Amino acid sequence: MAAERSRPRFPAGAPMASFTLHGIPVSRGIAIGRAHLLAPAALDVKHYLVAEEQVEAEVARLQQALAAVHKELQTLWNELPKDAPTELGAFIDVHALILSDPMISEAPLDIIRARHYNAEWALLTQIDELSAQFDEIEDLYLRERKADIQQVAERVLKVLMGTEQILPPKAGGEDEAQPQMIIVAHDISPADMLQFRDRSFIGFVTDVGGQNSHTAIVARSLDIPAAVGMSGASTLIEQDDWLIIDGDAGVVIANPSPLVLEQYRERQGAAARARKKLQKLKKTPAITKDGVEITLLANIELPDDCPAAMEAGANGVGLFRSEFLFMGRNSKIPSEDEQFEQYKKAVVAMKGRPVTIRTLDIGADKPLDQSEQTALNPALGLRAIRYCLAEPQIFLTQLRAILRASAFGKVRILIPMLAHAFEIDQSLAMIAQAKAELRELGVKFDNDVDVGAMIEIPAAALALPMFVKRMDFLSIGTNDLIQYTLAIDRVDYEVAHLYNPLHPAVLQLISMTIAAGHKAGIDVAVCGEMAGDVKLTRLLLGMGLREFSMHPAQLLSVKQEILNSDLARIMPQTRKIMRSMEPNVIADAVEQLQLM
Ligand code: PEP
Ligand code: MG
């Protein structure tokens, strides 16, 4: 358990050194709040703020857990065999003493009352503080008692995690009495990021990470400002520092002056007003000025994202990253029924609109279990369809669950990371087998469910006839297509400057895929992050793209751009861009497109 540095909490008026850090912007907007430093071990417990009226109930929950551990230790002591070594009894005594000490039995309760932390978080905060104090003790014997404190805390946490949690309030507006928090961590895995959904955090800052890492993608889907690749942030920023995240510029300002704070508050207000204005477009169909209708779909991680997709007026789900149902479960694969319920939930929530469920894309920066990551080069390893074909029972279970959900609405199956014809054929054979198994059991499903391929490996984009012949639709995963074309790890901030969606090679591969799909008469979407970037909307339209899939939060801005676009003017300029191999010419011409 890494220690938080000790510092007075929420110091009143003490001037603190202001500094600015630069990193990679991953999620737009401005967040103003207090830093909450997260140690890696702390990620295993839930962090949220409890509502004022629930504080005493949360205090009681912790008190009950403490009492339960007392009882547990008492039972252990009573059941000690007669011939047990005396150290064992003494060891239990020490733990009982620690548990009764006010530093454990009272201080965390005060933290809940003062800061509204949930019980687990309050306990961990106190333990981290104590650990830091123990680290400074010179006496080795005493210093080693830190381990005993941590063991006692773990016992309490175990009991707490088994008790019903009091739900956190939804994140709301800035409240001076209860400033909102910005998470600062060295790194956060995509699975850990998921636990922050619906919590009262308003922004994220991490030392490492790339713009299109899955952690960044989840932050974007939470629709809160975030910046990654902020080298040194978790050591330079201190607990409770005031922070401004400028998610558009990838800048974090610590302890800003009142003047800077005021400027950012103004910008925050202006952005909120612009968002409100966009809401008016919710029901407007996405049609270009010259009458071409565009399909706007949503990317989701979990079925709970569907209401936001509906709210944004999405025409359906273009990418359901099903692997998020499998992550953060210590490699325990969800059963067929469990998966079916989740897929059905999404299908029902989308009220007849198509739901494109991507089969398990596990591996690379989305391991089933963080501790099991062993491949030297996981992005090039047993990832996505490669993993599924190597684990046919897991794949078949998922396919049956998806097919069962297809009886409740329009479902499409999307296969990630295909490169070889035999992978396509084997995937289709597995789908046929899953159908046969369901048929045998008399279970209903849509026999005509469409099956599509993600085009995200350059080899796929260069061998499109192999795909269009076998598949019902294509979806371009630009995040990986860029990673694999330019040979840069999308998670590695040290090569983040090489991650360029406008590289001529990337543009050629995208354009070729759109053209080949349309020639074959099948739908082509872009579901990578390029689809939600308004600066690229016109370029993609000019390339012939008619289906965009993105986070619900990006949908209305993209729609606005489409409504203001005239394909007749965009197309010739796009052709000019596609003829160029000069990055500067391309970048300038893309900028020009936005002014047309
Ligand atoms: C992509 O690669 O563009 C994509 C949409 O898939 P993911 O980001 O989940 O790898
Ligand atoms: Mg991908």
Name of the CATH homologous superfamily of the largest domain: Phosphoenolpyruvate-binding domains
Instruction: Summarize model confidence as the mean pLDDT.
Output: 89
Number of domains: 3
Strands side by side in the biggest sheet: 1-8-7-3-4-5-6-2
In DSSP terms, counting alpha (H) and pi (I) runs of 4 or more, how many helices? 24
Which topology of the largest domain does CATH recognise?
Answer: TIM Barrel
Q: Pairing-aware structural class of the strands and helices?
A: alpha/beta
Rg calculated over all Cα atoms:
26 Å
Strand content: 5-15%
Helix content: 40-55%
**Low-pLDDT sequence parts:** 1-14, 167-177
Largest sheet composition: 8 strands, mixed
User: Cofactors and ligands present?
Assistant: phosphoenolpyruvate, magnesium ion
Q: How does this structure look, described?
A:
- With 596 residues, this protein is α/β, with parallel strands linked by helices.
- It folds into 3 domains: 24-34 and 166-276, Glucose Oxidase, domain 1; 42-161, PtsI, HPr-binding domain (Enzyme I, Chain A, domain 2), CATH 1.10.274; 289-593, TIM Barrel (Alpha-Beta Barrel).
- It contains 24 helices and 16 strands.
- It has helices spanning 55-78, 86-100, 102-105, 107-115, 119-135, 140-143, 145-161, 190-194, 214-222, 233-236, 258-278, 306-311, 336-349, 384-390, 392-405, 421-441, 458-461, 464-468, 478-486, 504-520, 534-542, 552-563, 567-579, 583-595, and strands spanning 19-22, 24-27, 30-38, 181-185, 201-206, 226-228, 242-246, 251-254, 295-300, 317-321, 355-358, 411-415, 450-455, 473-476, 523-526, 547-550.
- The strands form 2 sheets. It has an 8-stranded mixed sheet. The chain has an 8-stranded parallel sheet with strand order 15-14-13-12-11-10-9-16.
- A hairpin with a 4-residue loop joins strand 7 (242-246) and strand 8 (251-254).
- Helix 2 (86-100) packs across helix 7 and helix 23 packs antiparallel against helix 24.
- It is globular, with a radius of gyration of 26 Å.
- The N and C termini lie far apart (55 Å).
- The model is unreliable at 1-14 and 167-177 (pLDDT under 50).
- The site of magnesium ion has 5 residues, from helix 19.
